[in-house]
User: Which sequence fits this backbone?
């Protein structure tokens, strides 16, 4: 019998960073497996995290596959498992199984300009591919990040975003006006329209709340992006991670195995039920 | 290998199968159910459709995946719990229910394979029974590629021929069962074979319900995703989930943790059947639900069975047993829905 796919591997939390506080808190967790194993992921893939006694939750891996020492997850406190994760401390043990799903076809994007567009916690699934591109910057054209959240307090990876400014074009936004906010005010799709990224030799990668994704795609289409130049990730409730438990489907696709990464060209052929 | 077994000798055969747990349909307060046989002399293969298909034995409603606890030093530990050795024979399996097991075989057999499912499935022998007469007025196996005497998925097919059974052994597992009591069986004569053919022809004629032009249904459904049709059809649904829990082909499940103690931590992770008919099935923890109403959930059930599964596995996820029709408290009828889909403009 092959390895039992449902048994998580134990991993230690080695670092916790509070990204966002308040009523919608976000924390970033770094983990290391207790025993050596062959876990190796690609950009865009997810892992099933376990808090024993609470259950499992599918979370996108935000660290780059080029980072071999740890796995990183940025998690919004929302349900039973993510709330339990937020109560853990450094040194505690969680379970991890995976990786699951397909990945961003980053090898096909060499030589192209990459435009990353994120909203809120939606920067986490993009973070892995963004950092992989940054580490091999010479392989790609111009790198741009357009990222926004409800308020400046809801932006994740704030310190890194400041440093990122030196390496690529970063355009931030908040939904409503704030004192001392010098960047764009408005929703992410509006900021996309405002910054007018060129579709020439470009790929855009967008992730955020479903409603944001919908309008970002519209904004990109208006700028002349073709369906095959727009990539996004889709989320649904998941349990097994291997296309058997039946709940994360969009049409005949199971997001846990056929997704979560889709080009708009593919996604628009599926029933719009996500 | 075709054999004849007299009905009188049937209990003697079952008694020879002591190394197996033997299941057979048993009538309990007017409802039929697959149960472990206590007394082979009381065996009765004149059952109507059992409430639950034999799926409940190959894929139980609840099973333990793993146990967890914290050690004395406070370290979490996980222990895999695979099903125990449990060779089983199920008698009286209706061909539709055997076909249904072959469908779950494909889902749980696709890489990565499901170890819990296969440790049970590999140890289970299915002895079928030709349906003559049909066990339910809502049988429609002929419409979905089955038949009342289909051999698909079975190790042995038995056919009632009055005072005897025709026994068709179909696999090595089946041969093994017959070898356990070889002297009880006689070879089938050409007269027996002729009679069998007659019974099989008759059994098909007794199936009264039909889905028309089913081959066109998957394509038709593709164009009906946005149709208000689903709102109308789902109107009377009380979202009890019976249609899916009793379905021999439905395989969707949930995985949850059950605690026996919090300090020190002790508990288990279990798999349980789940249903697309419950709102929680797809609701995100944020409250967002891609299938927020009865209409989208009925549509999911129908499209999964007659479009998505056909696209993924080239087979309907329905074997025509009729349980979802007979036992729906609101009279929602999958055949009627499909026949309306056919006529939908």
Assistant:
């Amino acid at each position: 019998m092959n390895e039992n796919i449902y048994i998580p591997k134990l991993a230690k939390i080695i670092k916790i960073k509070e990204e966002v506080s308040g009523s919608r808190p976000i924390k970033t967790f770094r983990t290391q497996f207790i025993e050596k194993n062959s876990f190796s992921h690609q950009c865009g893939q997810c892992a099933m995290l376990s808090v024993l006694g609470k259950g499992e939750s599918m979370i996108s891996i935000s660290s780059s596959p080029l980072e071999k020492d740890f796995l990183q997850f940025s998690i919004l406190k929302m349900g039973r498992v993510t709330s339990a994760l937020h109560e853990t401390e450094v040194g505690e043990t969680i379970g991890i199984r995976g990786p699951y799903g397909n990945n961003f076809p980053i090898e096909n994007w060499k030589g192209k300009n990459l435009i990353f567009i994120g909203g809120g916690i939606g920067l986490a699934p993009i973070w892995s591919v963004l950092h992989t591109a940054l580490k091999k910057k010479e392989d790609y054209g111009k790198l741009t990040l357009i990222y926004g959240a409800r308020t400046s307090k809801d932006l994740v990876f704030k310190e890194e975003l400041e440093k990122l400014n030196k390496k690529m074009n970063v355009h931030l936004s908040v939904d409503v006006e704030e004192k001392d906010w010098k960047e764009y005010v408005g929703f992410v799709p509006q900021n996309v329209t405002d910054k007018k990224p060129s579709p020439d030799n470009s790929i855009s990668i967008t992730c955020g709340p479903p409603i944001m994704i919908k309008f970002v795609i519209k904004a990109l289409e208006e700028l002349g992006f073709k369906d095959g130049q727009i990539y996004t990730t889709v989320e649904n409730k998941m349990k097994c991670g291997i296309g058997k438990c039946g709940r994360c489907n969009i049409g005949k696709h199971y997001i846990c195995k056929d997704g979560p990464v889709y080009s708009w060209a593919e996604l628009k052929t599926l029933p719009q039920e996500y | 290998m075709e054999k004849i077994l007299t009905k009188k000798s049937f209990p003697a055969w079952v008694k020879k199968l002591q190394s197996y747990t033997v299941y057979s349909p048993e009538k309990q307060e007017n409802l039929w159910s697959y149960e472990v046989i206590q007394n082979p002399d009381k065996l009765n293969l004149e059952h109507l459709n059992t409430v639950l298909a034999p799926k409940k034995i190959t894929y139980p409603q609840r099973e333990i995946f793993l146990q967890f606890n914290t050690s004395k030093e406070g370290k979490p530990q996980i222990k895999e719990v695979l099903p125990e050795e449990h060779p089983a024979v199920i008698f009286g399996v209706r061909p539709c229910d055997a076909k249904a097991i072959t469908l779950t075989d494909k889902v749980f057999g696709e890489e990565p394979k499901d170890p819990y499912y296969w440790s049970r499935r590999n140890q289970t022998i299915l002895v079928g029974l030709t349906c003559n007469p049909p066990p339910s007025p809502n049988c429609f196996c002929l419409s979905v590629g089955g038949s009342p005497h289909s051999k698909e998925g079975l190790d042995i097919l038995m056919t009632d021929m009055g005072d005897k059974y025709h026994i068709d052994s179909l696999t090595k597992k089946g041969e093994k069962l017959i070898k356990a009591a070889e002297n009880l069986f006689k070879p089938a004569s050409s007269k027996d074979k002729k009679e069998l053919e007659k019974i099989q022809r008759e059994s098909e004629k007794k199936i009264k319900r039909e889905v028309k032009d089913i081959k066109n249904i998957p394509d038709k459904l593709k164009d009906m995703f946005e149709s208000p049709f689903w709102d109308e059809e789902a109107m009377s649904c009380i979202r009890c989930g019976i249609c899916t829990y009793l379905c021999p082909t439905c395989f969707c499940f949930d995985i949850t943790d059950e605690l026996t103690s919090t300090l020190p931590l002790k508990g288990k992770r279990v798999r349980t059947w789940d249903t697309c008919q419950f709102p929680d099935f797809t609701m995100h923890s944020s409250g967002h639900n891609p299938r927020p109403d009865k209409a989208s959930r009925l549509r999911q059930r129908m499209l999964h069975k007659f479009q998505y599964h056909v696209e993924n596995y080239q087979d309907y996820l329905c074997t025509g047993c009729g349980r979802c029709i007979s036992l729906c408290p609101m009279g929602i009828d999958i055949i009627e829905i499909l026949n309306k889909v056919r006529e939908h403009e």
About this structure: Chain A has two domains: 9-100, 106-233. Chain A is about 20% helix and 30% strand. The CA atoms of residues 185 and 197 of chain A lie 18 Å apart. The longest strand of chain A covers residues 9-20.
